[in-house]
Amino acid sequence: MQIVADVGGKPGDDCNGFCKYCYFRKVNDIKTFGCAHCLPNKIGCDQCTKGVAESGSEFRNPFEVLTEVQNTIMMQPDKSGIKANISGGGDVSCYPYLEQLITNLDQLSIKSHLGYTSGKGINDATIADRLINHGVDEVTFTIFSDKPDLRKEWLRDKNPEEALKACQTFAENAKLVAASVIIPGVNDGDILRQTCNSLEQWGAEGMILMRFANTFNEGLILGNEPILKNHESQPINEFEDLVREINKEYSFNVSGTPVCNPKTGGPFAIANDENEVFLQFIKPITGEASLITSKTAEPYLTKIFSKLDAPDVNIIPVKKEIACLITKEDLEDIDLNDLYDTVLIPGRAFVHQLDAERILSADGKDRLIARGPDTLSIDGELSNDLTDEDLIETELEQFNELADAINFFGMKVQK
Q1: Is 72 helix (H, G, I), strand (E, B) or coil?
Q2: CA gap 367, 47 in Å, rounded
Q3: How far is CA 276 from CA 30, 160, 293, 404, in A?
Q4: How many of the other CB atoms lie within 10 Å of CB of 203?
Q5: Host H or E run for residue 409
Q6: Which of 349, 355, 394, 340 is nearest to 372 (CA)?
Q7: Hey, how many other C-beta atoms are within 10 angstroms of the C-beta on 386?
Q8: Is the peptide bond before 260 cis (omega within 30 degrees of 0)?
Q9: Which residues contact 74 (CB under 8 A, 6 or more apart)?
Q10: Strands 313-317 and 287-293, how do they pair?
Q11: Phi-psi bin for 398: left (phi > 0), alpha (psi -120 to 50), beta?
Q12: Which residues pair with 288 in a beta bridge?
């Protein structure tokens, strides 16, 4: 079991500067979105302002972080096998008290996982040996490329050789899952395969390919698009093909975000024909509702609900490719004639209830607007440690939660 050890930090300030492709780059004023955590009559809260921009705090005192970890452990009924996932808004390799924190955790017999780090804070590769000796047994490392010149240019890494040496040490002595934001024409193709060759030789356990986002519809909701001029993102279907190709070519597991994980069949593993038998474990749909979702999720949901024999549920996709990043602007583009009297929006959508009701009832129909579950599957970057059975079990739980919401909020259908 992993518990979060949040060391804080702000993107850009506490990561030795923005990477060229960072989706927090060029953000100025933080927009007030609205979300499920806002007060009923107030649009905006920490979650949908500072939280979405990860601009909450500077690096935290290590004693404060350690105390928080200890308090979390005390609340756990089973204290065996607990690991601290060290993460924050900045790059954890830039955290000035990293060795101190990990040493203190080791003294408490707590292993450590270095959450997303690019290694930009590493100016001496021998730190990797010291961290491993004090209990770091898992690392998620944004490598981008094994070519130092590309890391220097795109990650703005001042010591790319040292960072790559540390990455190799982690791979050889701990569980290392590498990550790379794929910039078409920069670190894909032969360069990506050379990076994967190095990772395989070093003993890496996994690779996460992350699709580059450059537009509002791709997920840049902070008013900072485009991140890179004269660079186009890879279409979702082409990116999925790339993930599957690389996964076939290498011995370690390769997954992608926002799609896909070939090992588990996710996201939406229950949409796969070979898993149709599991749909019998989803509750019967007795309500009528419109489900608003992302462009990426729509084909999966349409397929699942067609197999569930739920003709009174219609799937309404917006142009946004990530459902959790849907905003009120996405709702404004929906043809209200397509909506039933009950509408469910994604649980984590950045839309306040007041805005959702105003926009989706603008044609004079007083629609009931509710929220569905936070998620309906698990993103590829979060499912590396799952089996296909784990993912299917999770999806069934989430879809049963969705079925409950449809049946509760939706108009009852006379059978």
Answers
A1: helix
A2: 26
A3: 44, 47, 22, 20
A4: 16
A5: helix 388-409
A6: 349
A7: 19
A8: yes
A9: none
A10: parallel
A11: alpha
A12: 411
pLDDT of residue 415: 45
Place of tokens 């519809």: 217
| pLDDT digit string, tens, across residues 288-334 | 999 999 999 999 999 999 999 899 999 999 999 999 999 999 999 99
How many C-beta neighbours within 10 Å does residue 41 have?
8
CB-based burial label for 282 (10 Å; 0-12, 13-18, 19+) = buried
* C-alpha span between 142 and 208 (Å, rounded): 9
CB 325 within 8 A of CB 295: no
Q: How far is CA 270 from CA 87, 99, 209, 265, in A?
A: 31, 43, 23, 8
Inter-CA distances, 384 with 177, 258, 261, 390, 391, Å: 9, 13, 8, 11, 10
Indicate whether 398 pLDDT > 50.
yes
What is the Cα 102 distance to its own chain's centre? 25
Residue type, 132: I
Contact 228, 20 (CB under 8 A): yes
Tokens of 198: 């190095």
Quote the distance between the C-alpha of residue 11 and its chain's center.
16
Q: Could you tell me if residue 231 is left (phi over 0), alpha (psi between -120 and 50 degrees) or otherwise beta? A: beta
Report the C-alpha gap between 117 and 200 in whole angstroms.
Answer: 19
Which residues fall within 8 angstroms of residue 221, CB to CB, at 6 or more apart?
31, 33, 52, 325, 327, 350
> Phi/psi at 371 (nearest 5 deg)?
-110, 140
pTM here? 0.93
pLDDT tens, position by position, 126-137 = 999 999 999 999
